[in-house]
Amino acid sequence: MRNYLKALSLLTTVVLTIGGVAHAAEIPGSSLAALTDVQKYERAIHIMAMLLVGFGFLMVFVKKYGRSTLTATYLLVSVSLPLYFLKESYFGIENSAGIIDTLILAEFAAASLLICAGAVLGRLKMHQYLLLGLMFVPFYALNEWIVLNCGLGLITGKVVDTGGSIVIHAFGAIFGLGVAASMTTHQEYETAIECDETSDRYSLLGSMVLWIFWPSFCSALVAPADVPKTAINVILALCGSTLATYFASVKLRGKISAADIANATLAGGVAIGSTCALAVPGTSFAIGILAGLVSTFGFAVIQEKLTDLTKKVDTCGVFYLHGLPGLLGGIAALVVVSGIDFAAQLTAILVTIIIAASAGLISGKVIAVLGSRSVPYVDNEEFEGESTD
Amino acid sequence: MRNYLKALSLLTTVVLTIGGVAHAAEIPGSSLAALTDVQKYERAIHIMAMLLVGFGFLMVFVKKYGRSTLTATYLLVSVSLPLYFLKESYFGIENSAGIIDTLILAEFAAASLLICAGAVLGRLKMHQYLLLGLMFVPFYALNEWIVLNCGLGLITGKVVDTGGSIVIHAFGAIFGLGVAASMTTHQEYETAIECDETSDRYSLLGSMVLWIFWPSFCSALVAPADVPKTAINVILALCGSTLATYFASVKLRGKISAADIANATLAGGVAIGSTCALAVPGTSFAIGILAGLVSTFGFAVIQEKLTDLTKKVDTCGVFYLHGLPGLLGGIAALVVVSGIDFAAQLTAILVTIIIAASAGLISGKVIAVLGSRSVPYVDNEEFEGESTD
Amino acid sequence: MRNYLKALSLLTTVVLTIGGVAHAAEIPGSSLAALTDVQKYERAIHIMAMLLVGFGFLMVFVKKYGRSTLTATYLLVSVSLPLYFLKESYFGIENSAGIIDTLILAEFAAASLLICAGAVLGRLKMHQYLLLGLMFVPFYALNEWIVLNCGLGLITGKVVDTGGSIVIHAFGAIFGLGVAASMTTHQEYETAIECDETSDRYSLLGSMVLWIFWPSFCSALVAPADVPKTAINVILALCGSTLATYFASVKLRGKISAADIANATLAGGVAIGSTCALAVPGTSFAIGILAGLVSTFGFAVIQEKLTDLTKKVDTCGVFYLHGLPGLLGGIAALVVVSGIDFAAQLTAILVTIIIAASAGLISGKVIAVLGSRSVPYVDNEEFEGESTD
Questions:
Q1: With 0-12 CB in 10 A as exposed, 13-18 as middle and 19+ as buried, what is A303?
Q2: Are A344 and A159 in contact (CB under 8 A)?
């Protein structure tokens, strides 16, 4: 009987302890699982801000092309999200992830597509951007499946790429270079894309929106308990690349370039993508500094030489913001993450480069069938009213 | 005794299972109920971004009127939120909803007011916007009470309008048309409001902010478990209207209109409002496409004809962005939602039209007492310094 | 046996009641504690939006200095966040708060630094902003430690300053005035900083972003159950200051000043900082109105007289937006909060003023060693390309 009383008192304790919780559980549709999904939803909205205002305004610097850039951003997002959902509904049956995970994966695909489009910005008409989206998403999904879900059995180990340095940033940038390589005409190469001198502040707005929400991009799919640590790693990497960009820009150019500040500041976010959930704060800061240096060096030194050498134009310099820092991030994981599967990680990088480059070259040829131009487009070819940007 | 041991082991299992939860419950003020409210708060902040940056910048296109538009946005929000709270504290006693629900409902009222103000933008002085707010909120609250809370016993069934296609969008647009109708002078009709040619990018910024946070607007008050589904429906509807707007704009005008892209892209969000928590993804996408077509057709074809016919001016074309797609959304529910109460839904639409139109006409007459103008206002009539927009 | 059955049925009830919760607890890393931290993370991201887009764009009004302002904002944030983290890792051992709390406290330091920098905007080169950051953070942390954590034993009672009217706003503003006082040369005083006439809309964008996310700033560290109440108090205070600013601006100047609207509208947020978690809605609205009046009076009347009197320039008028309303907020707590410790609160205000002023004066002298200028800087001294802002 005394034992029985003990059991009862223990039970009472349990009941009292969970009192608040049990009460709360009566709210219809409220549970830890549901609230966890809503928190993912919050991060999904942050990513949406990056896709539209972030990427869109960062790219508003081509002369007389502001309306086109923002409209293209709208169209690329609107074609890629439903397309990825469609793919999921056909092939995603075994995927037990909730629909909010699918939304975030679809946004990742849209981000990679926007990076890709940055390489040929100003060279396509609106319907060609749509075609680019239609061709990009299947290849992106193929690479994602091979690298992260062991598709085709090419990679059997675990690839470390939480925030997508490899599968989002490097893939998008290299795909874009492929498209540019097969589309750039000789005349195009000679007709430089002019910058709009009044748009620095717009570009910096886009840059800041990307910086602000980058932690949500990288922590979008991590478990709640790991979100704070991941976010702080990303923020420290961004602080590192911002400081490094300022010093490198002054050092390499003599004066600061506003384009460096708008772009290379973000290289830390790109490079920390692979290891954001696993690195320690100090390492994250160091990766950010390194990425800022590499990216600024790319914009200030490599870009001109490579453009001259290859006679190919990468309008937004996506190779220097997303390509190099993305590869850097994927390789940094080999050093930073203890017990990493070297073979899997390196194969992932190699497969990504091969699929992105070849798919980009093919897509460029297909898109060129719908027209190719020697001089950059301006707004008033496709838009009503005079171009004032 | 064996039974007793079994009971004890079961109890131990329970204690261990809820271990993490019980520990967490010790955090002061942390409970599922509290966290659910904080998540609503997050969505309330998203809506605030829509009210100020979204609506404010979308409307920054009237020539030499940028400062006035943004200041009017500030004032309309600042007068309507406290007013709605005041109403709640007098009439909301029986309302068991928490204060965070009241905040969201107040924001809905502010959104509807901003839609209404869009119809007469550029025709009012600042104190007239304030008066408009003071007159609008009581009528809005009356209609909301009748349609959603069975006020006066006019509607006894359940009206399907989660995201406010009817009570927010259609109500605001029709109220605004009423104000415009009773205020527009003959001279005003003949003095077209000129667009500021440099403000496309500002309008697109406002448009994108509305697009980004629209899922939070529609899912603001739904249960946590339904948020992901609702959000994805809204996003698919917006993708649909964005793609449809591009095609319709090119088809109907020959070239793309940046104003169509800034406005009609959002029609999917307006139209999915009623059924966002109940539709399936495919249907949401279709409703979005239809809304984009209807809205672009409104801007490109109906607007000019109706303005000529009625000699009345709707500055921002709110009838084509919020009026028509709002009514479309309310009616779409009749087809999409199984077991819907036809009588209740149709009565709700009818009541909304009648209250909004008559209250708008009355308010216009009252506001006109404080002054009415034949030519549009410009910034420097009310603001220091030269107008540079 | 009957008792035993009762116990078993009670146990079953418990198991069923916590069914959903127990199921949810199986999600790895999901617990009330983890979700509570993720919600703090969400508010931390909101604050980041305030730091970069909010403060950055609010200050984009100095002629030909847009790129510099936004780059300085980037650098100030990127130097202060890691520095505060570094401090925590050395001195924060006894601090049991999670890393997400540290991130929010670091953001508070960055906000205070940006306020401070506003006082000398346009007078420093980029490396001087960095030096300002390096000098500011230690003094800020010292004051925070004395006022909020009983450092040195100067204050033993509880200081009411949830949203930082005293330790963030007043501290930053007074520190900035100190720097300006020891750096302003006679020629500088005579060379007024010219406003860029096209930047009203940018300033209003920054202002609106600050307005939107201010509730998250003030409720960043409060318990989940208190977030809704705190947020609504902040929103009502902002509504109050926005309405008051409009009326005061018209009354005091004859016409509305766009700078008043961009700045003084926010004074309600500054002043409600101390009491945001404790005041009732009506009081919050009243504090907001009072703050709007005081701030607008500062900008419209005091600023010119004080500048003439002291021959010192406060570029952004931070004393009128953050200084006066911050002190007002700290003092308002004496009236609003029942049972407040008068001695502690008043000592906190006094200590903050003394540390901020003396540290500011010292820092100004040190920064002046690296160069001091008689005329304001413009973008193209440090940036590539022609200044177009």
A1: middle
A2: yes
B197, pLDDT greater than 90: no
Do the chains contact at C103 and A232, CB–CB below 8 Å?
A: yes
Interface residue A227 vs chain C (CB under 8 A):
yes
Closest CA to A260 of A304, A209, A317, A211: A317
Structure tokens at B349: 């639409």
| Exposure on the CB side of residue C202, measured as CA atoms within 13 A | 31
Token pair listed for C95? 């601090």
Helices H / strands E in chain B, number of each: 19, 0
Give the residue from chain B lying closest to A104, CA to CA. Answer: B232
- Predicted pLDDT at A369: 87
Which of B14, B67, B98 is opposite residue C200, by nearest beta carbon? B67
Cβ atoms of residues A172 and A322 within 8 Å:
yes
**Which residue type, as a one-letter code, is found at position B332?**
A
User: Are B21 and A23 inside 8 Å of each other by CB?
Assistant: no
Higher-confidence residue of B358 and B4: namely: B358
CA distance B98 to C285: 20
Q: What integer pLDDT is reported at residue A152 of this predicted model? A: 82
pTM of the model: 0.92
Q: Which of B183-187, B284-288, B305-309 has the lowest mean pLDDT?
A: B183-187
List chains adjacent to chain A, taking adjacency as at least 3 C-beta pairs closer than 8 Å.
B, C
Nearest to C47 by CA among C144, C164, C127: C164
d(CA C9, CA C14): 9
DSSP 8-state symbol, C385: S
Q: What domains can you pick out in chain B, each with its CATH number?
A: 32-372 (1.10.3430.10)
H-helix or E-strand containing C319? Answer: none
Residues 6+ apart with CB under 8 A from A94: none
* A212 in C contact zone (CB under 8 Å): yes
Where helices occur in C200-266 by DSSP H, the ranges are 200-218, 227-253, 258-263
pLDDT in tens, B245-283: 999 999 999 999 999 999 999 999 999 999 999 999 999
- Give the separation between CA A2 and CA A155, rounded to whole angstroms: 60
